[in-house]
Amino acid sequence: MNRSIKVRLAFIVVVLLFIPFVACKKEQEQTVQVAEVTHSVFYAPLYVALSEGFFKEEGLEVELKTTWGGDKTMTALLSGGADIALTGSESSIYVEAQDTKDSVMNFAQLTQTDGTFLVSREKVNQFSWDQLKGKDFLGQRKGGMPQMVGEYVLKKEGIDVKKDLRMIQNIDFANISGAFSSGTGDFVQLFEPTASLLEKEGKGYITASFGEASGKVPYTTFMAKKSYLEENKETAEAFTRAIYKAQKWVEAKQPEEIAKAIQSHFPDTDLDVLSTAIKRYKQQDSFATDPLLNEEEWNKLQEIMKKSGELPEFIPYKQLVDSSIAKKVTDHK
């Protein structure tokens, strides 16, 4: 047998030995489809988990899609279009109130304050909440966390949302900032980086933070159908471990470094705008430092819903919160 034939045979043997290894690796990598309610710097730890390879480290291939609105996000989850949803915890309560046979369980918290800011059309040097009286307020979707927290803050500041201002709620979630830019409303409630972007363009001015005004609440959590968590326990644990790694990473890093890590997820947004938005969120402790949703926060969520007239019924903590995964991942007792 000549040398060239030996070399070719050796190469074939190596390839044949390598193929099962690659196939095994692909077989072990679990695909997880995640639907996010909006695309915002508010969810920075999720994008860090993607860009820094934390999901990959856990053997997961995460496919992320933005579904723009709590109702659409829950539809994707319930119909099987997504394995995991990232949205406001109130969505799971609405589903439970419909006597679902497969409860939607909150298993990992991502944000722990409201993530919206009050943006004014005109620059305000000394702001007070009563300046909203008699104005057009471009709010968020009725029944969603941004709107309910917004109303909670306004009521706390002595503003009657039905009498003291003109509330505009007939604009689709994804089009709110565009409507404001086009001239609708004197004030608007927006997430980052949209709020900072409008300010940079001179189309609005960040006047106050709903997150600072409302305090801690389980604003955005990862949730899945109870059946999914029971059938994919290891996957859910791996997913939560990756999120926890990202949360600790974000906690330890400066806004500029975080902005660089997630810039690929916001290709049309300048790095300085991302850094400014992240700095605001870090200053008000919006990013949860671990995935555990506690009972006190859960009860405060329902208090906010009740005051907004949107709580269909009180749901006990353990009925819709599976804390076992987060406790295992973080070694909480």
TrEMBL record:
Keywords, sorted A to Z: Signal
Compartment(s) where it occurs, according to its Swiss-Prot or TrEMBL record: Periplasm
InterPro entries found in the cross-reference section: SsuA/THI5
Gene Ontology cellular-component terms listed: periplasmic space
Principal place of residence: periplasm
Sequence ranges assigned to domain SsuA/THI5-like in this UniProt record: 44-257
Keyword Signal: yes
Keyword Signal annotated: yes
Family membership: Belongs to the bacterial solute-binding protein SsuA/TauA family.
Protein name: SsuA/THI5-like domain-containing protein
Source organism: Bacillus pumilus (strain SAFR-032)
